[in-house]
Amino acid sequence: ARLAGSVGPLSGRHIVVTAGPTHEPIDPVRVIANRSSGKQGFAIAGALAALGARVTLVAGPVALATPTGVIRQDVTTAQEMAEAVDAALPADAAVMVAAVADWRVEPATQKLKKRSGPPPLEWQPNPDILADLAADPRRPRLLVGFAAETHDVLAEAAAKRDRKGADWIVANDVSGDVMGGEDNQVHLVTADGTESWPAASKAEVGRLLADRIADAIKDQ
Ligand code: CTP
Ligand code: CA
Asked: Where does the record place the region Phosphopantothenate--cysteine ligase (predicted)?
């Protein structure tokens, strides 16, 4: 039996998508998390599968159904997400939509007690999954990052594209009520400049981005 969506402009292509937040434990019952519903990443994964791609969706903790035709791998921490992305390679393209926690702490083995006062947290940096993939010999031909910014959106996104070695950055302004919502207004930052897309549903943004990805890798 053929998977739904296995025929289309992305047939035969493998695309890795990260989505959702990561959770970094501080003790057995508490985590440090990023805010992300995972909706935009799941919409992109579903749209890519609908164009025929084999999609590996590496998902942080979210409450969402797996899109049709997508192979989903659930992870909790940034380190687990990095390992799952590594294990999914090679890929023709990768779309890193996840809101990865930039730092982690060494979790306490026992529950921290309130009576002991606020715990001192010793942070260490998490791997930068996108930047590491950009520098990897197995780098996918098309590497797409996301940038959720609250200010200087376009300048921050362009700087991020250079710094991380991504081909494209999809930037959005999260100073409003985008987080967790159904709609999104994004800017696509490429080597050729910036395009601002109209505000649309996350599903529609996913379809537009999937079309662009199909177009970009069709001749490879
Ligand atoms: N990213 C990643 N691994 C990380 C951090 C970020 O793969 N440890 C990816 C995200 O999935 C996204 C892109 O990098 O595609 C940009 O993430 P962002 O948090 O905006 O970038 P940072 O370099 O962490 O910058 P900031 O200081 O704005 O958080
Ligand atoms: Ca970050």
From this structure: 15-220
Helix axes 202-217, 39-50, angle to 10 degrees: 50
In this structure, which residue's CA is closest to atom 8 in ligand 1?
128
Cβ atoms 202, 183 nearer than 8 A: yes
Span from the CA of 117 to the centroid of ligand 2 (angstroms): 28
pTM reported for the whole predicted model: 0.95
Residue 5's contacts (CB-CB under 8 Å, 6 or more residues apart) are: 49, 50, 51, 52, 53, 68, 69
Instruction: Find out whether 20 and 60 touch, Cβ atoms under 8 Å.
Output: yes
Summarize pLDDT for 144-202 with one digit per residue, the tens.
999 999 999 999 999 999 999 999 999 998 887 767 778 889 999 999 999 999 999 99
Alpha carbon separation from 62 to 29, 35, 40, 59 (Å, rounded) = 17, 10, 12, 7
126 is catalytic: no
Using the 8-state DSSP alphabet, how is residue 109 labeled? S
Is the CB–ligand 1 distance for residue 147 below 6 Å? yes
Residue 32 forms beta bridges with which residues? 24
